[in-house]
Amino acid sequence: MINYGMNVIISEFSKLNIKQSHIEGGSIESGYPACSIKNSSVTVSSSSIIQEITSSESHAWAVQAQEGSNLSFSDSSVSAINIYDSKLFMNSVEIVYYLGIHESSLVRFQHIVDLQGKCSELLDLYIGGNSALIADELKLNRIIDPNVRVIQDSHLYIKQLSYDQGKVDDLNFEVDETSYFNLLAENQGLTEDKQVPQNQKEVERNPQASMEKLKNLVGLTKVKEEIKKMIRMVEFNKHRIAKGLKPQNVVLHSVFMGNPGTGKTTLARILGEVLFDYGIFKGDELKFIEVKEADLISGYVGQTAIQTQNILDQAKGGILFIDEAYTLNKKDASVNHGQEAINTILTFMEDNRDDTMIIFAGYTKEMEQFLKTNPGLKSRVPNTFLFEDYTADEIVSMGEKQLKANDYLLEDCDYYKRNVSRVYNASLDRSNGRWIRNFNEKLYKALADRCYKNEQFEDLNTITNQDIDEVLGKHASYEVKTGKDAFDSLNELIGLAKVKQQISDFVHLAELNRRREEENGGEAKFTLHSLFLGNPGTGKTTVARILGEIFYQKGIIAQKKFIEVSRSDLVAGYVGQTSLKTREVLESALGGVLFIDEAYSLANSNDNFGQEAINEILKFMEDHRQDIIIVLAGYTKEMNTFLSTNSGLTSRIPNVFDFEDYSEDEIVEIGRLGLSKQSYTFNESLYGEIIKKAYAGSNDHSNGRWIRNVNERLIKHLSSRVANDPQADINQITDEDILKLLED
């Protein structure tokens, strides 16, 4: 397959198998790689992929993969590869020009991979952006400065390094202070006291420095304290040994649980430095290997144990960080390769309790479930670190540190703090550290745009209030929404004078709190959760919808979303399942309104499932006071009884709206309006008289619901009459039709 000037292969959200093929083409000038791969799984065997590269200015590579792709190459030749946020497995492959590994990518070399380095302007290998390469055997073919660059919290592990033209010592490895390079091989011709290439900086044990790194991390107070306890135990053992006493065994294996962006990976690396500096990990260098499910599991029976054991052996004497560990739980799969990996890990953990640390990391809910389904694992992991979400103040502090580290200044620090706090508190994307990184990156772009538009390049590092406003203006969820004023919709409702005034006061209070938050900084202490009390048919659901629209238009909540549920939508029939089911419903309503009708029914049961749902709702209310409106609705008497037995609800829901019954005149007006909207004509005076008489004599005082049912009966009378008289006006309700209502 040859196609110069364009991509030869484009693979997106696909699976692709390339076998015994020759692929050639692409366009360096136009930025088209020969093979463009996004979010795909691609296997290449006994093939060649060619795209000529002549300089470092090239904007395309023979293979470019991104967005979570998985690549496997064997017995093949490739001109150059660039991967982003992807995984790459290589077995007996030659790379003609260059290999670039970016953005949290992971690469594994099995057997020899030959980097030929045939472009004088390109280095041989680049690893950056929190990426890692584990190589059984790597061959380099020239001396260039550098041959390999490892930066930005990245890792390189090589078992065997070869250079046929000279000594391995002559190769140049550039490794920044945030990254690690470990040459695991023996008998490589290196001098006895030098286990890494010449310019690789040796790691020194400096407990004070690593503890200072830990201290300087923003937030994570509880996690830091747990680490200090671990270190105190280490020091305690040293004192026992000094007195001739037997030391207490310290099991290092741990679980890291928390939401995305809470610093799990960063802290794991620093924890590794701390443990290394305190002498818990032996050897000349700290070993830190980060893997995910795909790195441990093979698609072939029996190979997973071998693949997992290989990684465990590489991590022995250091840290193995298993991210998203819960994905190893493959109980529904026909062949449970995940359990094979877990069993291999369990055996290793038992044999290496005090010299190797295995960290299982992931989101809290998923990790808790993972540990429940693997009791053997839970019993071997005594240390649990819970990573809490960052507060708005901590997010601001992180943002300021990032700006300083990247040589940016703020025109007005207070303005930055106020706005970041406000926007973060209002955001549904609570991705913690990732959120503030993304926000700051938008500021950098806004600064660059302003400089170019104004053609002013003297000050390239001061972020102004104008830049902040520009970024905030691009967040639709913080702008006031346009369209029909929802307050008009509220005022158009018949009756409900008391509720309308309560809603108006509630909205004005929320607006005041938001303004105080913006102008004074920090988080305003108010909640949007509400109680709607009243008899059936008094408009509770309708008003809740309108309330959500009002807050959406005012920019107080982020989405125009209304979800209505009852007990059956929240409660499951099995122990432990209700909280999961309720949590899913709550999370689906984030940013909008969750209307729980007949909420008192959660307590009207002989089982505990309803209380389980209530407990989940209470916690969610506390955690999300301003980014969701949870409305508990029901009949006044039943709701008051329900609240009296659940004091936690009363304290969390200060906003109470009393929906009074409609008067007879209001019932008539609702009925008239309903018929008029359907374009019916009728004797309004007679209609009002009959409706009042019928309502007074009815035992069913379900308000708006009652009059809707009456109108439906009235239209049935009309339809029966018209069926017998084809000449009759189908839009005219006669007095006879109305009078029949008294006969029903």
UniProtKB/TrEMBL annotation:
GO terms for molecular function: ATP binding; ATP hydrolysis activity. Coiled coil: none annotated. SMART domains: AAA (SM00382). Residues 250-391, 526-663 form the AAA+ ATPase domain. It holds the Pfam family AAA_lid_6. Keywords: ATP-binding, Nucleotide-binding. Belongs to the CbxX/CfxQ family. This is AAA family ATPase.
